[in-house]
Write a structure and sequence with these properties.
3 helices; 18% helix; 175 residues; alpha+beta; single chain
Length: 175
């Protein structure tokens, strides 16, 4: 995997703001930032970073990540996909390397990327892995409207862009 260095903004938990060149490494389970400061590399974990953002040239969009305490496993970097007043949608990329695969010419390894969606409740601060059941539980106050919207727009819950559209619709409904 080739590291992608980008120029962006890093906000540390102590309030310090860095505008530097950095690389995000999702190979580390919680995520890791390598930051180039005065020609030296400094490594930052989610414990020290509140958030970071950069323009992703490949995806042609601004990406923002925040550090959150997710379960008892500690802090992780999670991408903000949609920020709403009631519910927000976050995404977490993990990469698994499977080794010791015999391919006839010797051992090899393969890399698989996983991207999981997370629902963040802006009102009570709770986090929950995204699936159909959790979507309807979190949007229970407008469940029938959400189901109708998904059906009328022919949205798929496996498509992150469709899920973002659902969150946008829900957050725009009057209280």
């Amino acid at each position: 995997m080739v590291e992608q260095w980008a120029f962006g903004t890093i906000v540390l938990k102590n309030g310090e703001i860095l505008e530097e060149k950095f690389a995000y490494n999702p190979l580390v389970p919680e995520g890791l930032l390598k930051v180039m400061i005065d020609e030296k590399i400094r490594v930052l974990s989610p414990i020290h970073v509140a958030e970071f953002s950069f323009f992703d040239r490949k995806q042609e969009r601004l990406r923002k990540f925040i550090s959150v305490a997710f379960s008892k496993n500690g802090y992780f970097f999670i991408e903000v996909l949609f920020l709403g007043e009631k519910l927000s949608l976050l995404g977490r990329e993990t990469i698994m390397i499977q080794q010791d695969t015999y391919n006839g010419a010797g051992k090899s390894s393969s890399t698989k990327r996983y991207y999981r969606l997370v629902i963040f409740n802006e009102i009570n601060g709770s986090l929950r892995w995204f699936d159909k059941k959790s979507l309807y539980e979190k949007m229970n106050d407008r469940k029938s409207e959400i189901k109708d919207y998904i059906k009328s727009q022919k949205l798929k819950l496996k498509n992150p862009n469709d899920v973002i559209d659902i969150f946008r619709y829900y957050n725009n409904l009057p209280y």
